[in-house]
C-alpha cells in the first residue's frame, strides 16, 4: 500500500498475511508499517523525497496515518504491523495496545521525545525504539545560538526602547556595559544532551568560554567537548549566559529554584529552550521584574503563561511560543531520519539513534 497526498492510496504488492504471534520472527523485506500521528502531518514530515523513500522501504498498512487505535480499521492494521512509525499526536502505546499488536517489533518516532506516549510495557516486551531527537536538536541549537548572540547584545530590550522612543539609545540605556556583546562571554550550558552538545559545537564559532554542568558527563568527556565541567552552583555564579538543555524529570523539576536563581550575577542572560518546569517561574519572575537579569524563554511553566502575567510586558524578557524545535521545512529532517532508521531495521541493522530503557529517565 502506498500513500499519496491527502491519504489517498494506490495498491502495490501486498505483504503476506501475518500468520503467527512469534515475536522472535525476522521482519519482512518491507516491514509492515503503520503510521500513527496527528492528521495533516504527513506532507509536513514526509515531503516528496522522504515520502518516496518511505514507500520504497515500508509496506504501509493503512491509507492514512491513524490518530487512535480503537476503530476497526486501526485495530486491523495494528494487528498486522511490525513497525509503528509515530509522530506528534500519536496516542499512548500501552499494554492494551501491545496486546492487539502481536507482530510489533519496533517503534520509530519521527519527532523528539517518546516519553509522552510510550509506556514501559514497550521496552519490557523487547520492542526496539528509535527517535528523531537528534534531528530535532539541530533547530533548537540554532535558535539557542541566535538567542545567546541577540540576548548578549541586549537586542530585545533595546529594540523595544527604540520602538517606543524612535530615537537611538543613550549611554544610560545600555547599562551593564561590562558584557554588552559576545566577546569573551562565559556561557554556562546546563545539560550535555544532544541539544546541549550541539549548542556547544555552534558556540565554538564565537569567542566565548564555555562551562558545562551535567552529572552524567565525566571530566574527560567534557575535555573532549572543549568545555570545563563545573558544579551547577558554580556555573550559575560565574556565567554571563546560562542556557538550559536538561530533560524534565522529577530530579530536575525547579532545578533553578529561588536560591540558585539568586546565585546568578546581575546582568546574566537566561535562555530556556528545554522545559519550563526546570525553572521556578515565581522565583524567576521576581528577578526579572527587578531587572536584575534578562531572559529568553521558549518554554514556561505553565505554558502559556496566564494572560496577565507580568513577564509578558517586561522589556528584558522575550517569550516565544515553543518554536525552537523543528518548524516548517525543518520537520523534513525528522521524517528523513525516521525513514533511514526504518531502512536499517528492514536490513536487520541496529538503529543509529536508539532510545534505550536504561537511559530513558535522563532523556528529554
From TrEMBL:
GO terms for cellular component: cytosol. Keywords: NAD, Oxidoreductase. Residues 76-355 form the D-isomer specific 2-hydroxyacid dehydrogenase catalytic domain. Pfam families: 2-Hacid_dh, 2-Hacid_dh_C. Gene3D superfamilies: NAD(P)-binding Rossmann-like Domain (3.40.50.720). Transmembrane segments: none annotated. GO terms for molecular function: glyoxylate reductase (NADPH) activity; hydroxypyruvate reductase [NAD(P)H] activity; NAD binding. Residues 159-324 form the D-isomer specific 2-hydroxyacid dehydrogenase NAD-binding domain. The keyword Aminoacyl-tRNA synthetase does not apply. Residues 1-31 are annotated as: Disordered. Belongs to the D-isomer specific 2-hydroxyacid dehydrogenase family. This is Hydroxyacid dehydrogenase.
Amino acid at each position: 500500500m502506498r500513500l499519496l497526498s491527502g491519504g489517498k492510496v494506490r495498491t502495490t504488492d501486498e505483504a503476506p498475511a501475518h500468520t503467527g504471534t512469534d515475536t522472535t520472527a525476522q521482519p519482512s523485506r518491507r516491514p509492515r508499517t503503520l503510521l500513527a500521528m496527528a492528521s495533516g502531518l504527513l506532507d509536513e514530515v514526509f515531503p516528496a523525497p522522504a515520502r518516496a523513500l518511505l514507500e520504497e522501504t515500508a509496506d504501509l498498512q493503512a491509507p492514512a496515518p491513524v490518530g487512535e487505535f480503537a476503530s476497526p480499521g486501526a485495530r486491523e492494521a495494528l494487528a498486522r504491523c511490525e513497525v509503528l512509525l509515530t509522530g506528534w499526536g500519536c496516542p499512548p502505546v500501552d499494554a492494551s495496545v501491545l496486546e492487539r499488536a502481536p507482530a510489533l517489533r519496533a517503534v520509530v518516532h519521527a519527532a523528539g521525545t517518546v516519553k509522552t506516549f510510550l509506556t514501559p510495557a514497550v521496552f519490557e516486551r523487547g520492542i526496539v525504539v528509535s527517535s528523531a531527537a537528534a534531528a530535532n536538536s539541530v533547530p533548537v541549537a540554532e535558535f539557542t545560538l541566535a538567542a545567546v548572540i541577540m540576548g548578549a547584545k541586549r537586542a530585545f530590550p533595546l529594540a523595544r526602547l527604540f520602538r517606543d522612543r524612535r530615537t537611538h539609545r543613550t549611554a544610560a540605556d545600555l547599562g551593564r556595559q561590562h558584557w554588552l556583546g559576545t566577546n569573551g562571554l562565559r556561557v554556562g550550558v546546563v545539560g550535555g544532551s544532544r541539544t546541549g552538545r550541539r549548542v556547544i559545537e555552534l558556540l565554538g564559532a564565537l569567542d566565548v568560554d564555555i562551562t558545562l554542568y551535567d552529572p552524567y558527563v565525566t571530566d574527560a568527556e567534557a575535555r573532549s567537548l572543549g568545555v570545563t565541567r563545573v558544579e551547577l552552583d558554580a556555573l550559575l555564579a560565574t556565567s554571563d549566559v546560562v542556557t538550559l538543555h536538561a530533560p524534565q524529570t522529577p530530579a530536575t523539576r525547579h532545578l533553578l529554584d529561588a536560591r540558585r536563581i539568586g546565585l546568578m550575577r546581575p546582568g546574566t542572560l537566561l535562555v530556556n529552550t528545554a522545559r519550563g518546569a526546570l525553572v521556578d517561574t515565581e522565583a524567576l519572575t521576581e528577578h526579572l521584574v527587578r531587572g536584575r537579569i534578562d531572559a529568553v524563554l521558549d518554554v514556561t511553566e505553565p505554558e502559556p503563561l496566564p494572560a496577565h502575567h507580568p513577564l509578558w510586558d517586561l522589556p528584558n524578557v522575550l517569550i516565544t511560543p515553543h518554536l525552537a524545535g523543528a518548524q516548517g521545512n525543518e520537520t523534513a529532517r525528522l521524517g528523513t531520519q525516521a525513514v533511514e532508521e526504518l531502512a536499517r531495521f528492514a536490513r536487520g541493522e541496529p538503529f543509529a539513534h536508539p532510545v534505550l530503557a536504561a537511559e530513558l529517565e535522563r532523556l528529554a
